[in-house]
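Single Protein Entry

Contents — chain, fold
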Amino acid sequence: MDADLFSSTLYVLTSLAPFLKSGDIIIFDEFNVPNHEFLAFEAFINSYYFEYEVLGAVNNYYNLAVKIK
């Protein structure tokens, strides 16, 4: 996921929602920016009720990989 901004990240996640299935992995490149990718992912998860598992993070959660359950 290299959408950077809140609006574009949320747009991509909601567009992918019908196609996401258990085992799919999403990798964020700027997750630790509180008002953009992080906030969009939080809004997405709360709206679509996907469960996820954090697979790994580096650089103080700057880059993050999650697996859809």
